[in-house]
Amino acid sequence: MLLKNIKIILLNLIFGLLLGACSSSESQKNNSENDKVKGFLKKKTAKVTIRYAQTFRVEYFENYKLLTLLNPQQPTAPAQQFVLLPRGTAAPAGFASEQIVEIPIRRLIPLSHTHIACAMVLGVDSTIVAVNEAEYLPEEKILQKIAQRTIQNLGSGAELNSELVLSLRPDLIMTGGGADMKPYQAFLKAGIKVIPNADWLENSPLGRAESIKLLALFYDQEAQAEAKFRDIEAKYLSIKNLAKRATTRPQVLCDIPYKTTWYVPGGQSFFAQLLADARAKYHWHHTTSTASLPIDFEAVYPVALQSDYWLNLSVYKTKAEVLAQDRRFAAFKAFKNGQLYNNNRQATTKGGNTYYMWGIVNPDLILSDLVKIFHPELLPDYQLIYYQKIE
Question: What would be the CATH architecture of the domain defined by 104-234?
Fold first, then answer.
């Protein structure tokens, strides 16, 4: 009887050891699988930090991103939200189908040339299937693809070629306008996602440049966008700090009147911030508008008489062309002293301009141009990129 009990105890002991070994092996296997999952999740959930932009926010959840689009001009208006969901993942509850965007997207239609530049910065421009207003596009690489018909031209104006858009089956249309979705109803009904990118409402040059982060969300390219933006930010802040060494602050006049009204940048606008960072004085810096201010010619005239520099004069390239619009310009201080500069150095013959495409995602270059114009002693060897002097 005792021998029998000993045998039972030994068998149980051996069985327990074998079971423990199997459990240990299974545990090691599970831990290995968990490590792989953790590594996968870590790789997939690189995050962006929004430091300057006011028009969008992003939150990261376990298996999706929640994008919130905002209008800083209407802070009480309802925000638009979109769920950016990895393909094959179950959608979270509480969201309509038109709010669900499967990522990474594979076919993009950007309706702003700035967003084309963002795609090129991120290296995802190969996913662009169509653009609009190609005749004004100052980018040879995209123009070549249009000529080869690998990228389609949707035409100009507010009306898009709906049949062509639907035949291209884009995953996403990124608009450059506001939140009005009425012009895109046919595309929404067909399951095409439409994202309004209101980067033009940003009042900070670096806020506008953060548009690359917004586009990156749809490609899982957050790490690349962060790296690109950190480089842009560092260069911009370096030039801004250099400008602080300037011993003078010249007064600047901007733009040119249309008929009897002068549309000048608002004090909280993108360009007013550039002027401030370039250590220049701007008469309307105290205003709170982020858009252009319509001001009567008579109200601008006394300011123009005293301004040291005059910038952004439409498409004009000579003083004779400027004077042909209005003979009163000859009395302006900047006109007399030959301090007229226009941002059309890289304009195309058809009116396209890299300033409005690449300059927005490279604000450090615009700021460098302005510092060179206002304080040439700080950048003695620098050559203007977007600006040229009007002779």
Answer: 3-Layer(aba) Sandwich (3.40)
